[in-house]
Design goal:
globular, 5-stranded mixed sheet, alpha/beta, 35% helix, single chain, 306 residues
Amino acid sequence: MRLGVDLGGTKIEAVVLDDSGAERCRRRVPTPRGDYAATLDAIAALAEAAERAAGPCRSVGVGIPGSISPHTGLVRNANSTWLNGRPLAGDLARVLGRDVRVANDANCFALSEAADGAAAGLAVVFGVILGTGVGGGIVVDGRVLEGANGIAGEWGHNPLPAPFLVGELPGPRCWCGRHGCIEAWLSGPALAAGAAPSGTGADAGAESVAADAARAVAAMRAGEPRAVDAFERYCDRLARSLAGVVNLLDPDAIVLGGGLSNVDELYVEVPRRWSPLLFADRAHTPLLRNRHGDSSGVRGAARLAD
């Protein structure tokens, strides 16, 4: 059996999968925000509880909102900032008493959906997270493609392609310090802010993001002009951004995850808009809804040692 842990900003979740991919156990605890030592202790206690319930596991994988630098071995680019600069993989191996595989949470999502999810059996899969942030992961022949610098799939911090709409240059400032990143345009808070009544903005707090984005989508479906316009721009920007991925990687499928993956209209509008942007005579790339929902990240973490 395999143990997977998803280290999120508000919760830590663990799951045990057997060889068939069936879940044998699932546990969840709040994340000790801002406290690195307490985070290690919480993961260790969660792993112990999961194995007590399901039996010993031969491997442990952990998905994190960031990545491990292959050059320093330290966490970088995590929006759970108390992890940055820490030797998380080594510290987890110490507290758990075994080797631990650590990967970006978007890579875990892509691995899960390529293994037994929406893209099962396909050779090259690009997994997309559209939520509080925007991430991506690449799986080739059942293996996560990490790259020489450990940043393969990090499309969210590329600039928005072909900016032409009013206000797209230089674009909003991203948390990474750059302007006009794809994440700054396509996150849930970005959609909510674009659809909010003029002058009100949108609450981008972690707990309100899903509600704000859901309100924006509901307003679009109700025909509220500002929300309709914001969603049109969102679809156009997502199509441009994913067309660049298709032209570069040409995956067998793109799978959407995160809160915005539940918006049905995206699966019609985005492929329709990206088709003229692809350097191909016909566009066959499917845009798929994830199969495992919020469970994909932790399921993919469990599969890291496959």
